[in-house]
Amino acid sequence: MERYADQFMSWLKDLGFTHCFFLAGGGSMHLVDAASKKFVCIPVVHEVSAVIATEYFNESSQNDSKAFALVTTGPGLTNAITGISGAWLESRDCLIIGGQVKRQDLATNGLRQKGIQEVDGTSLVESITKGRMRIETPVGRDLVSELISLGESPRRGPVFIEICIDASAAAASSEYEVKDGFGTKTPCIKSSISDDDLKRLRHLLSKSTRPLLLLGSGVSRKVVLELENIFEHLKIPIASTWSGADRTNVDYKYFAGRPNTYGMRWANVFQQQSDLLIAVGTRLNLQQTGFNFEEFMPVGQIIQVDLDSAELEKENPGIDLGLQIDANEFLKMLPSELEKNTKVEDRSEWINHLELVKNELPIIESIHVSPEPFVNPYFFIHELSKSSRIDDVVVSCSSGGTFTSTHQSFQIKRGQQLISNKGLASMGYGLAGAIGAAFSNTSSRVLLLEGDGGFAQNLQELGTVARNALNIKMFVVCNDGYASIRSSQKSYFNDNYVGCDISTGLGLPKWLEICNAYDIEHFKLDSKNIFSERFHELMESANPVFFEVSTDPNMLYFPKVASKILEGGKMTSAAIHDMTPKLANDVAGKVFKYLPQDMWGL
Ligand SMILES: Cc1ncc(C[n+]2csc(CCOP(=O)(O)OP(=O)(O)O)c2C)c(N)n1
Ligand SMILES: [Mg+2]
User: Fold this and answer.
1) Treating both helix axes as pointing N-terminal to C-terminal, what angle do 75-89 and 47-60 enclose, rounded to 10 degrees?
2) Which ligand is the nearest neighbour of the Cα of 457?
């Protein structure tokens, strides 16, 4: 007998799904059985990893393959919540199918629970999904595909469907009662700019001699690669956000870095002197503008292109022109507008300034020194990127010092992908993300950069890596715990260190023994053997390797925008270009050419 579960899975197959990351349970048993017959099914050890792997699988997919996550009722879903939140905040589509108790066991009349392990899934995920549905009795294909398409349409986000076990076990039918659809919840996106906006755009472009194009993840990698030559010809500097880190690259002649509260310093300094920021497919959140958003773009105007009107209206930062149109469409029309309204020669000085700022403010700063035998993470990551291959997929963790140092110092090459999840910025994302990327890029190597604290939060997935012999090179930056927490306790609480490392009570494992338990090759990297013959040999092998990168536990992560706590508890932050440690006067004099001296922050 064909069950509804079988039919449901065949609809997913028709919709293009190919892989399923799952963890089985009673409530989802028919769904798991049905999925196993249609998809490449990958069991994971914790549900949060099923969701994160799904997100990164889809994000890094270079063909038409698509994954979904399958979890069971109750704890299966609650374990998945972090991953669903991450996909929501990062605007990535991610389908999560959940089991649920049988219809007659659903709690009603104010009961907290009736069915075994019952939790009301659809209510729990309401604020972090684009669409959600509980299937209590089988519903038809149209309704299911309409809901799933909500997640894939702009602004993208996760979709959750939970299915009562009696519905998934029921006999399939060729006809279902027609139920109401979901209406059109997708914002109405204009495909072209209004005449007034076009006039304003042309006016802003024509006044500008120091434009900067800032690309976020709302722009597709493919479209940027197609247009790069034209922008290069037009001498337009291009920067990217961290979420859209691979939307530009060091091979682009006028690469303007990744400005952010946590650096790159040179990119921040350059950006803040632009007279026109053209921000496309980025929501310009506080990490992008600095907490001190009032001093973001102090001598420049801002055009923001985003299809979510709430992002254009939010007032941090204030913008001069907001265009609610598709970022890719805008990017395609921008070159002709630049050609018509500006002169390439007028940008020569600006381009020279870009070179000067880059040369004066190198990525590895003098403060980045590590005593022997520790490895300096900025230096290591910088060198690693130079020796990486274009088809390596780079997965960076999403919080802590390694997240920061990767985004500050990894040199992304043209065509290379770098993925993280900045929106939730959660520990524990790296390994699960790398697993997702490895399954969707089977002929590539995945380079994972993680902190030891972050890695410890999801280390059970070493089992998934080992079992599937994934070609993931795991670089785990080890500093005995949470260096970033230690650093903030030092700055704000007079060295009152609490729960931030092994000496203050944190329990972290001996990594060699963990690797042995999972049969994974372990190699401890120190200042003597980085880039040794053995290192290169391991890098070339097709097997997973765990590189324990020894770093100085007392290292502080710089440069960063300084904040301080004022009396009364309020926090204040410097402008995004005013980073600690401060620049020498003579350097500031050169690099801040277009900023009045009282803004240099010395
Ligand atoms: C789930 C979660 N809990 C807490 C935090 C707060 N937090 C940010 S960074 C950090 C320490 C991360 O340690 P590690 O990965 O070793 O990086 P390090 O700070 O040592 O560079 C913590 C606890 C977080 N980002 N995510
Ligand atoms: Mg650490």
Assistant:
1) 30
2) 1
Residues 260, 288: contact at Cβ < 8 Å?
Answer: yes
Burial of 180: CB neighbours in 10 Å, binned 0-12, 13-18, 19+: exposed
Distance between CA atoms of 408 and 263, rounded to whole angstroms?
Answer: 6
**Secondary structure class of 171 (helix, strand, coil):** strand
Cβ atoms of residues 70 and 38 within 8 Å:
no
- Rounded distance from Cα 508 to ligand 2 centre (Å): 10
Distance 163 CA to ligand 2 centre (A): 40
pLDDT in tens, 285-332: 999 999 999 999 999 999 999 999 999 999 899 999 999 999 999 999
Which band of pLDDT confidence, cut at 50, 70 and 90, is reported for residue 77? very high
In DSSP terms, 40 is beta-bridged to 19
Q: H or E element: which one contains 132?
A: strand 131-135
- Look at residue 187 and tell me whether its pLDDT is greater than 70: no
Distance CA 368, CA 560 (A): 13
Locate the ligand 1 atom nearest the alpha carbon of residue 402 and give its number.
Answer: 21
Q: 422: CA distance to ligand 1 center in Å?
A: 13
pTM of this structure:
0.97
Strands 66-71 and 17-22: parallel
Angle (CA) 172-173-178 rounded to 5° is: 120
CA distance 533 to 119: 53
Largest CA distance in the chain: 80
> Pairing mode, if any, of strands 211-215 and 158-164?
unpaired
Q: What is the spatial distance between Cα 216 and Cα 278, in angstroms, rounded to a whole number?
A: 11
